[in-house]
Amino acid sequence: MEATRSSEGFLKRLFEEEIHEIYDGTVVIKSIARQAGVRSKVAVASVNEDVDATGACIGQGGSRIQKIVQQLGNGKIKEKIDVVNYSPNPGVFIIEACRPVSVIGVLIDEENKTADVIINDGDLPVGLGKKQANLKLASKLTGYNIEMVEKSKAEKFGIEYIPSEEWIKKAEEERRQREKEAYIKKAEEEAARRAKEEEEKRLAEEEEARKALEEKQLQEKASKDASKEEIPTPKVAPKASATPDMFPAEAINPAKAALAQVMAQKKAEEEAAKKASENKESVTQTIEVKTTTSLDDLEKELESAKEKKTKSGSKMKRPRKITEDEVKREVSKPTIPTMPVYTDEELSQIEEEENSDYDDLDSDEDIDEDYSEYDQYYDDDGK
To answer: How many domains does the chain have?
Structure first.
């Protein structure tokens, strides 16, 4: 389509820019017939029953169509634009295309693509338009060679036309039929879609069932093949001929054996300790009593002790004189092996106590107490 300012394409672009419903496809331009600078006819149809096609193009108070007209003219001469409703019924479409003249009826010759449009007497100038522009644009817009005929002339020549009311009624019936066919077609398509989905689902279920059956058959076959194979008889383990007394105690009852070992070890230690004690008792310890002090020294010591006692005012008897025979007899007494009564620690403790006793003999009272036991010897000699 040409896009020059005088072409139908330029006018179509203006409609698409100014009318949002045409831009988004709600309203469709079916055909355009234009005589630049004079008049243009635009046939529109709505794809939405709730949208009026001509009303959407004209706008409230003609606001939309006026914007388009302003862009077409040069300011002095304004091009007129007729927006008409498109109809698939040729009679109704011709009636709409011939506006603004009022059409009484139409006679259509489909073979020759001609149409006689019957109008009221006196409306011929309006039907033809300036320089027959309305007639020419209506013919171009509809695709029929239209001829305007006044009603009286049509009756005179016996032209049998179909009144406009019948054309409109017929168009309404066709519209309902189309809607019915569209509804049936839509229902058939929906049914076909559902049937296709159900068929696909059925095929999928059958395929799944087939696979499950094949898998089951394979499992049964594998089970049968496995059952046919000879199962080796398990070898019987030889019966044990050994008896418990053939095994050591450690193998039969490790815990009991370990306890017995501990008890035996403990008993051995006790026996060893007892044997060592017996050996210690059997050792003969010879204790020799040696006199480290001579008889003269002893007499001197006794005299010195007596003098100390005399000085202190206490009376002490003279000890009896010990003869040499008594000393020899005492010294020569045989040593008898004796068993130690005290341990080494107890003996050392006794020795320390004896040493402390000798340190306490410094006083005269101690001397008297120490030698008081000898008085009886002297008394016995006096007797």
So the answer is: 2
C-alpha torsion angle, residues 239, 245, 249, 254 (rounded to 10): 30
- Whether residue 268 is contained in a domain is answered as no
316: DSSP letter = -
Place of tokens 């927006």: 83
Instruction: Judge whether 8 and 47 are in contact, CB under 8 Å.
Output: no
Q: What is the pLDDT of residues 22-68, one digit of tens each?
A: 999 999 999 999 988 889 999 999 999 899 999 999 999 889 999 99
From 144, 159, 174, the end of a domain falls on 159
Of 86-100, 112-126, 309-323, 333-347, which range is least confident?
309-323
Nearest to 365 by CA among 318, 314, 325, 291: 314
Q: Is the dihedral of CA 52, 54, 59, 62 positive or negative?
A: negative
**Which long-range contacts does 64-71 make (Cβ < 8 Å, 24+ apart)?**
64/18, 64/19, 67/18, 68/11, 68/14, 68/15, 68/18, 71/14
E-assigned strand segments in the chain: 27-35, 39-46, 80-85, 103-109, 114-119, 145-150, 162-163
Give the helix ranges, DSSP H, for 98-132: 124-128
Domain assignment of residue 372, given as a range: 295-382
Q: In what order do the strands lie in the sheet with 145-150?
A: 145-150, 114-119, 103-109, 162-163
DSSP 129: -
Whether 88 is covered by a domain: the verdict is yes
Q: Final residue of a domain: which of 99, 131, 159?
A: 159
